[in-house]
Every structure is written in structure tokens, then in C-alpha cells.
Prior knowledge:
Peptide Methionine Sulfoxide Reductase, Chain A, elongated, 6-stranded antiparallel β-sheet, alpha+beta
Amino acid sequence: MADDFDHLSPLAKNVLFNEGTERPFTSELLDEKRAGTYACAACGNPLFHSSQKFDSGTGWPSFDDPIDGTIETKGDYKLGVPRTEYHCADCGGHLGHIFEDGPTDTGQRYCNNGAALKFIPDKEPNLKGTVTAYFAGGCFWCIETDIELLDGVRDVTSGYSGGSAESANYDAITTGKTKHREAIKVAYNPNLISYQELVTQFMKHIDPFDAGGQQYDRGYQYTTAIYTQNEEEAKIAQDTLDVIAKTHNLKREIATVIEPYKNFYKAEEHHQDYSTKSPTNYKRYRKGSGRDAALKKIWGE
Ligand SMILES: [Zn+2]
């Protein structure tokens, strides 16, 4: 396999295809602070965004989350203690190990060999790189799928917002008593899609007049919200809702709330990219939920 990758250094080949480990504090990517993408050095698969990188102090480039669907994992017992190894989903190249001691809301630390990565800076380094936005739009299987299709959106993660970390799991939340909503975290490039456009598109993928959930899914956990992280976002969100209220000359009030962002807990792995992981179930659910029919009534095509 390594023969296909003549452009790689001997160290990179050893890490990627011999499960080697580089010496700590040797990677030049440790000090890389620019906005951009960390891709697989062998095949170019985009694995992480700069927004997912943090300084772990371990001597290896560290990330709190990968770009959805770009890595795969397996158990590794080489050191006698079970560890989770991860590798590139496209070429199988070995990248590093995952540890459950991350300092951010994902709780994870992807400890990656720098030699297995290639950094690609964003084209316009003076402008902001990837930023995040948070929304609750009913069933996260659906809203994740819809928002991920927008140009400029790099990655959407399904999760839960509001409530407390202890009860942020699907079983607890479906009772509706934990005061979480099913929510999404959207990583987007503001050079390609503005926050205002993102909010507008989000609204067109929900029923903003439904105060008790979304279509077939009833209860607090399915109500809709825009979680804003600063005053600028709050103003844009309010202006967007005002425009919709004016242009939709309906008797019903807009039920979507604007709330300050508080937290986001990533949902269980099987809920991520549900529409591609479980396409049959997803299609049946989507049709049965009446979501598309309801949205078409409100927004037209
Ligand atoms: Zn690869």
C-alpha cells in the first residue's frame, strides 16, 4: 500500500502504514494557528478543521472532534491497555488514538500524529475561518441532513442543547422532562454563507409556527430555537424572524425562540449522519413524520 504514496516522507509512511508514532513535540503543526483544514497526508481526506484543534500539552496535535464520517476506529491492545485507534476512512492510513479526557464539550481528545496530516490554510487567511452556529429544529436526523446540504456549511453535528450534561442522552430527553432540545451544531465558513443566510435557510427547513414540537414529534424536546452566541447573532436572528412575520401574513405567532447559547452535548454516534447510516429507516421516518408536506405548505417549493 505504501508504494502508492511516494510523496510521503519515510516518517509519514511509517506512521500511516506501519502504525508508527512520531516523537512528541516534533511536529511543526503544533504551532499552526491559522484557519484551515487538516487533511490526511496520504490521500487528502479532510479530517479536522482548525476550529476543532486545541493545545493539549501532550506534544501531539490534538482535536476535539473530526469532520463527520472521515475517520474510522478500532480497538488497540498493543500497550496492554485498551485504547481506541483511529484511521482515515478513505485510505485506511493510521492517524492516532482517541482519549475521553478532552477539555471541550465533546469530551474527546483526538491525539494525532502530525506526520500523518497535511495542513491546508483557508484561501483568505485574513478573514475568519470556520465558525459555529446552534439551532434546534425538531428531529435532528432531518435538520442535520437539510442544513448539511447548504453551500458553505462544512459539517453538522446532532446533539442536545439546554438542560444538564447528566441527562443529555436520547432516552432521558425523549421523556421531554429534561428541558433539552434536539439541536444541531453547524460548522460553516462565513466567507461562503453569512449567519443571516444560515438563519434564513434554517427557518425554511422548520415550521416556525408550531409551538408544541414539529409535525409528528411532540414535546418540548422538539420545539424550535435559535441559540445565539453574542449580541450580533441575536440581532440578526431577531431581524430575520421579523421579516418572516411580516412576509407571512398569517394569524399565527412565530413560536421559534431566540435564546442565548448555553451548551451543546453531542448525541450518541448512531444518531450522527443518520440519513446516510440508516437510509431505509430515515426515509420511512421522514415520510411518516409529514415534515416535508408541512414545510411545503408554509414555504412553497
Ligand atoms: Zn487517507
